[in-house]
Specification:
Oligomer: single chain
Largest sheet: 6 strands, antiparallel
CATH class of the largest domain: Mainly Alpha
Organism: Vibrio rumoiensis 1S-45
Shape: elongated
Number of helices: 15
Distance between the termini: 29 Å
GO cellular component, one term: cell envelope
Order of helices and strands: HHHHHHHHHHHHHHHEEEEEEEEE
Radius of gyration: 40 Å
Protein name: C-type cytochrome biogenesis protein CcmI
InterPro entries: C-type_cytochrome_biogenesis, Cyt_c_biogenesis_CcmI, Ig_CycH, TPR-like_helical_dom_sf, TPR_CcmH_CycH, TPR_rpt
CATH superfamily of the largest domain: Tetratricopeptide repeat domain
Structural class: alpha+beta
Helix content: 55-70%
Number of strands: 9
CATH topology of the largest domain: Serine Threonine Protein Phosphatase 5, Tetratricopeptide repeat
Number of domains: 3
Pfam family, one: TPR_CcmH_CycH
Length: about 400
Amino acid sequence: MMAFWIGTVLLLAVSCILIIYPLFNPKEIDEATQRDDLNKAFFKDRLEELDSEDQAGIVNNKEDLVTDLKQLLLDDIPTSKTQVKAGAEKVKWMAIPIVIFMAAMSYGMYAMYGAQTKVADWAKVESNLPELSKKLMNPEGVQLTDQEMNDLTLGLRTRLQLTPDDATGWVLLGRIGLANRDVETAIGALTKADNLTPNNPDIMLSLSQALLFSGDQADLDKAKNMLDYLMQQPQVDLRVYSLLAFKAYNDGNYVEAIKYWKGLQAQIGEDDSRYAMLERSINTAQRELDLQANPQSQQHQGTPVKVTISLSPEVEVPKSGVLIVSIHSADGSPMPVAAARYPLTKFPVTVVLDDSNSMIESRKLSSLSDIMVRARIDTDGNVSTRDNDWHGESLPIHLGDDAVVSIDKKY
């Protein structure tokens, strides 16, 4: 921050010097010299003319004319150097108001149209980076607000510009990107960290998770290769099983998804609270597998999702608009699997979505095992615009459980 203001002062000083310098080096003396030289040249030319006229007998009083010409030359000499110097001193006093005017104009225009507030916030965020990082890593699970997450991202980006070889910083930025569902940032940061510390299992696991959220097939293949590599290690992180099952299920490879989920069950044991959730995921995959084997054996009925939506006290319901409810996979993918619009009524309100609300025919709502629900009050009727819309989302739940959403955030 200090460097910024020092830089502005230096630029202003250079500008003032370029404007004021001519005032301390006035041109009056040079102009007087030029006029004197011009008069001498004129005097010399006029003498030559008089000589020619005298020889031609045109003039009779040549000496008198020469005397008058000399007198005119003397009369046109500048009054005195003292007067010239006094005039220059008066001009020099203009330097002070010019400097004041330039400083007032420069900083005044910057105050009106510049980004001094953003610059100050940027400096503040950078100074708060250690505190925000400590809060993020707090084992008590203190949740950062959306603004704190944005500040932490900005601070990390700034710090990494100065220390680009800080692998830990890149990992932290990548994980923040994952938490914010910013896939591009997550992949870029974690790829940088992986290049700095190759074959680090923890970094590879985070990177593979980010790559699985990408729609690019090359990224998906890379994630699969990394997870297969991690699966061959002596100590396998339980998240590897989960990510491999997730990839297999999304690819429609239900046999492999069941294999990995059962492998994860064997690792955690029946006493773990996650065991029952994994069992439901296995049952869902098994139903899809049975349907693939014999499509006519049963009519695939969708499981309805009951959603109760409430508003926080600060939300003002607009006079016009709609309520948009969307269901996503539990990983928080931005692309909804099912969605529906409802008129704005009195809150809280309860709605039900099922397979008829699926966005894509080939991917039904009932094909998911775990979901999350988002709700938004859309004010302009355009789904693609979200400015100033209020929204909220549920915690991840199992398909078939009731969802509860509180609309309490504003874009």
